[in-house]
């Protein structure tokens, strides 16, 4: 009985527990499915919403019309997808792509009723039935940065599509039908034979003479009356063009050829940008800049009249970003100045370049990117300042321009973010009324914000005011420029990722010199006052002589010998890439200026000897050393490397004691040979210091040139041969000859004795064993360079040289190491005219490059050795007659001495000296930093003078001629 009772009790408990378990299991199952049921319900709600069965009672008018109204709004002619594909709208958990109404709801209501005449529907109900994702347009939906070319092309395509003459509205699809390969430059530029003649694909639908219309953006001029004055203004308008279908098709075909170029440039520039950005090396940086829309200053609290007139001040924002291999930085220059010209651009760029280079010591190459407005970036003024900054900072680099209308990027985002933040600050009580207050409020910003004043902009303007610039041909088409020295650029029509200087189809690099040296100066700029010293003085009148110099350049403190060598090595490489003599000459004029600006000078008074240089004696050459060298101290030939650079090595030893400056010496020889070509082809110049008789030294030197090919040597052929020789020596380690020895003498500003052994043809030795005089003397030293050979297989009678070496004394002698009875010069002659008395009568007085000091000029008019030269008289002379002569020119009613280095039919180009002391003191000096050069009319040339005498560190003009010149000016 007990057992049965226990069993019933257990069964009762078991049944109760089982029921409880089932209850808990049912609740758990229901909870797990709840979330799933909600997701199903949500999807069901969305489906119902699309079916129009969610908001209205089944069978009602709204319930029946909702699907029809949805369909109406979804049509492209009534609403369109928002320009930003990421713009979506979410309501009640439903996310939909936002669409924008093409017209107002009122007009769409009218349109709906016209299309559905059997339906009567109020405006209120129509508005209530509008889907939530179809919305009226906002201010932010306006596209205010559209590309004119794209918009006009799209208008044409839309019209043709309506007429069923093209099969697609997509511009990208149409371009593919007009080109073999949209990535090929020749195809897109209309140079491909296969696709350049492809015409519009049409479906002839009726008469092409039928009239049609299409929209076009146009720029037009209009006259308006502004405050009583009639002014012509330029407007951009959208007009309707009405013409025949045939004209529409022709217009499309013509514009498509241009649009293909436009589309290719867009893709190419962006590809180039990405390629550089993603592959930056440790020594490279990319700088992307743009002007943001001006910020309008605001106060937290303003009175009513603040809204009118000129009370609303604006600030310029120049935004950008720079990337290096390891980091990036956004920045913004803020200025009260509203100038957006090249001077402003570089004033804004200076602080950010300083920041970039200070943080990245290894950076030596900068890639600039910007859009291409002709008033800001893509113009000759910006190009010149670009080369100036690259020169000053010892950088190399390029500037790339995005295609017109497609230059948006990070700088635009920086500008937008800063202006939004500034407006928020004003709403929170901050006043922003100046660049200073703007910058102050962004001290904690991740964007580097800094102020630039008007003075910094004015300093950049001074640089441009000093130069007359030549525009770059096809400026509007170019998209890339490369730095190639001050005032010199290389440029391409499209940016290229290939190596600088490479030439291949479509990417040909062109050379351009920005500075126009022969431009006529309309307004003379006056030289600023300088402190008077023994070596450098200034005109006491504080007005001085016009100085066409570039602005003062601060030499960076960390400039090293390595950077100097790098500059000349790079310059020599660029010269070696030149294909014609004209290209070399164009480069040389700019390199000459850059060397002066960088302060790269030669020690003209350096006296090398074997003791202080440690150079080994060349024992083999000792055996052929001639005995008739005009020198009082024993000279020894020293070893010079024999790899084709022997003459530049020799010049390097003479100014530094080492061969390390060979590339610089070669560049300087090229400059000298190009710029003063006329001197080295002139008999009067070449025979100075020459004892023997030779009526045509230029012709003789041409015979000795490696470029001589047995042609008849007329004057024109000699000149062409000389130019070919200059082109040849632009290649590093190419052999040089007698013309280059002449050029080296002028580079070193000292006499060089060309030593030729008593071997081989005696006629050759008679021509080459001689004294060579420079154009300008700055050193008392006479250096000795000997012709020798590295061969051992030549007989005495057939001996020819193939090497140059230097002759040096064992130790410093403390006096001039030459014989006064030889063709060398004495201490007295250095201070005076530089020619011994026994040589004065031997010089040809009829040559343009006659040494003007070979004829003494005294106060009483006596001239030993010949008749008095007719100085200060140019009545019978042409500008060509003055080439190479020393002259006095009149500027600001004051005379200045100088040398004529160039001429045209009516004017001469004179490099002038600067005066020391008052007007009665005829003491002068040559400006060291930048030459004082200018074009002068013949009426401003007072006449020729002897070469000014070097006395100490001053040059003295003949006193009697100076007084005569002062009287001429007073008259």
Task: Describe this structure as you would to a colleague.
With 971 residues, the chain is α+β, with helices and mostly antiparallel strands. Helices cover 35% and strands 18% of the residues. It is built from 27 helices and 30 strands. The protein has a 9-stranded mixed β-sheet with strand order 13-10-9-8-11-12-14-15-16, sandwiched between helices. The longest helix is centred in the N-terminal third of the chain and has 50 residues, at 2-51. Residues 520-555, 816-870 are annotated as: Disordered. Residues 816-826 have a biased composition (Polar residues). This is Vertnin.
What key attributes describe this structure?
single chain; nine-stranded mixed beta sheet; 30 strands; 18% strand; 27 helices; 35% helix; 971 residues; alpha+beta
